[in-house]
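$ fold --in a.seq
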Amino acid sequence: MANFTKIPDSFKEEYKKKFIQLSNDEIQIQSEKDPIIFAYYFLGKKVRIHQAYIMIRILKAKAEGKNRVAMCLARQLGKSVMLALFLIWAAWYNKFPATITNITTIYLISRDDPASTELLDKIRGILRDGDKHMIQYVNFDNFFDGSLRDPNNTHQITFLNDCFIKSIPPTGQVLGKSASVMVIDEAHRLSCEDPDKFFNQFVVPTTAETGGMIILSSSPEGIIGFFYEAIDPEGKHEDNPYERIWFDHAVFNDGSKESIGYQKFVADEKKRLSQEGKLKHWQQEYGALFTVTQSSFFTYEEVEGAIEDTTKEYEWKDTPCSVGYDFGIKTSRTVITVRTMFKDKVYQLFQYRCPADFDTNKLIDPAWEHSIQRLKKRYNLFMIIVDDSAPGDTINRWLEANSGIPLKKYNFRSDQMSKSDGLNRNCVAYSYRAKLKEGKLKIPKWNLTQQFEMKIIQETEQKVLISIKSPDGQLCDTFDSDMMACIPFLDMEDSYSFDVDIPRADDIEEEEKGFKYDSFHSPTDDECKQMIEDANEKIL
């Protein structure tokens, strides 16, 4: 259940009082203190109650020394207009002076450069409306326009008090700037190579020396990234530095003609998108929910439904096991996964995610804890499945020649077919997902890294083929390794399938099992099948 922000009844009463008739002197005094009153009397804009509440929450956060605000808002709640009104007020009255010049410097970032300049255009349009509104009180028609100076262009608005609002693209151009307020609109949709890196390395430092504010605003887009962490919808971070505001479409339902029209539109969109199989899109855009994206390979429910509270088995001799190796490159990781089938379910017994700078020669070094030699002693390995890639070529050749266990190679770094088996990453991924949906393939509760990776993997339809991979800036090494370890137990051509129903060692005495495995003996396929049949017959 989403923990949406609720507007207190006390604020609703305060909101109503803001629009009573004020004298000219009161207007001047109150407008400098309150952006809601300034917007109403100077710009001719009466903000909705949820917009007013956001403005006051931002000011309250600043007064309490909290310099970060994150707003997760449904589409068409007027967040851009609200931000524009607030920023004009802040620059007009120099509300957040910073740097040696003691002025308010505001930077706007949006999804891309055109979107950033579009937000600045919206601010300029509100100033023009303000000129039209103020002409009834002053004898000239450029009350706001006449209060601007150069630079005054498509990327910057500068007021006579030297305070300015400037749009910049989501790139390194922000580096070196000092901001009173840094606003990122569409924060969950930044069009750059690595949004998290951009935010942490380029945006955050801009307010470090000034003690300035960072304001994030967006509707959700998946369950990853700095914006997701800022909103923290599941409440995992007790020390979250952000003042968080979270509104779905229902917040704008005050009975006005505009709100009635908006709610009808939202309902119609839900119906239309549901019929098109795009309900998740509606849930994100208007329900303001952090669901997996429409292109996600797994649904959130599929991953969560497959999680089972099993233990990590450092040693397992009861059933035949397979091991999958995914080899890392640069920042990606080498991962080892061991799987087995037990009581018609495919369980993950063990997974080790190596450090980024891991020496893969350790995989065949008997002295290393998780080398193939050690794994053979701990598990009844009947097959090794490896990533057929350049980083693992030497290891793969050694395993093939010296491990004593059948080895299969798959190209998991591309969508091309494997030359030997006619399988590729996608073939295995679809079979893996099918087994997951059947409830036959389980994800251990302890493996949070793989759960996360599975929730962000995307399926992208290209002109010739379909790509199944993690988003830019993210990894899926644990998932790839697990897929390889599962191959013998998936329903695919040229793969192995065992009907295993063997109790654990503590269920029956060793002599009643009907078989023993030699830790250093790699049974053939026929031997594996015969051992399982013998064991099942003995048990029955």
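$ fold --in b.seq
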Amino acid sequence: MRVEELVAGPIQPAPAAVFARLPDWADRPRFLVPRADELEVVTWGEFGLAIRAAAAFLAETCLAPGERAAVLAANSVEWAVAALAVQAVGGVLVPIVPSSTTEQIAHVVDHSGARVLFTGAGPAARWRQARALCPAVREVIALDPAADGRSWREVMQRGAALDRAAPGWLEDSLAAIDLDRPALMLYTSGTSGPPKGVPLSHSNVGANARDWLLAMADLLPDEGTGRDLLWLPMSHIFGLGELCLGNTLGFTSTLCAPAEVLSLLPVVRPDVFMSVPAYWDKLAAAAAALPDRESRRRALLAATGGQLRFCLSGGAGLERRVKELFQDAGILIVEGYGLTECSPTLTLNRPHAYRFDSVGLPLDSVELRLDADGEILVRGPNVFAGYHQDPAATAAAFTEDGWFRTGDLGRFTEDGFLQIVDRKKDILVTAGGKNVAPLNIELRFAGDPLFQHVVVYGDERHYLVAGVWIDRAAAVAELGGDDQPEALRALVQRRVDAVNDQLARFETIKRFCILDQPLTVEAGLLTASLKVRRKAVYQRFRAELEGLYS
């Protein structure tokens, strides 16, 4: 069945895609899970039965339609089962990034009012510390034996018995779901303040998925033939979207941890690979050093397994040189633009309509326009209705006539492609009245292996300065083993001078400081998707940055 036929019917809750496969595909592999030296096969039939059992347990014991259930664990088949079971009984899925701090876990669980928590072994200690701050939780279910809570085995056994005792109950449950009610609630990492809950309805997600599938139809594998490496965290909408894409198109997904991705690519030989830029960069780096085009092409094909058909980069911008290197090897990497509040995709480059200097064209159901200051405004069936229990933030997020404020500044090319200029709230205004987009400056350092982070500073000051975090091992290697502070500073200065030569005078970095304290998620200086929390960095390093003006 072609993509166009798959999306021709009415929108349905996400679990319905799995059960639609079972009559014909019960014995086919849905997941391959590395266990020691072999791959454990989980069939579509086993996946479907597990969802039914978990859903029956939830419906009977602890979760009513409209109530929230959180999942705090690393990727696993059990994670996917729990998530779809929650939605199958009309519950609202609340994914939590498993590396979240105790405070972040407590905030999400308590703010969402989650009644049920599925947890894994990794964050178990942090959940124990957060537990007392989450009085609404009535049931904790352990997705693996090393986690706290009711055992997964008990949930499966009891749920399976309940399911057998009431044939047809799950089909009735799916049919009764109000598509305009929330299907999931994701918490935005944000750049300041506590995360905000973003409820997305079944209709929001379904409308966006339909647009997305139609836009990508020519690149996607035929139904039932796709193979992917599912490593992106399902707790993020990017990874959750890949899971649901596989359910819709019938992928065989090999589950793996981020550290295993690059080594498994030539083994699994997927035709679908979805990744953040860091992994595309690593693949490109090895090939780019080779002397000629054919060698680079062969190296990329060998490193990726040689079967890639659909490649998507998301989470942050991918450098143009990387996209061009892959394109030269016959591999098109597609990029787009979106926000959690928009389910998430707004624009995509298409297989036959793309510009590497853009984030693509708007999806069919999406309306975009630019506000007077260049902020990208959006409306469409994919846009959420408002933040959970936060009317002030909701009011601030929409214009008076109902357009959602993305907080990003953009421009359109002459042929209609969207380009992102910067984050609106990250604009610096110098003492001379000049508006500066710091990200535009910082991105000029992004491809240089010397730098881990560069953060530009200078709001209401006469000139710009920067905090610089370097890869000391790379720097010392480049200096032939010299690790003296003077040599390191001179090396950084040369790089800064080279970037300054590309900038208007008021944009140049006049002074910088090399900072040793790393920027981490745990310290609250990076978001879960590894974006810099600019305001938090400014606050933490204000003395050092202000010292550059003395």
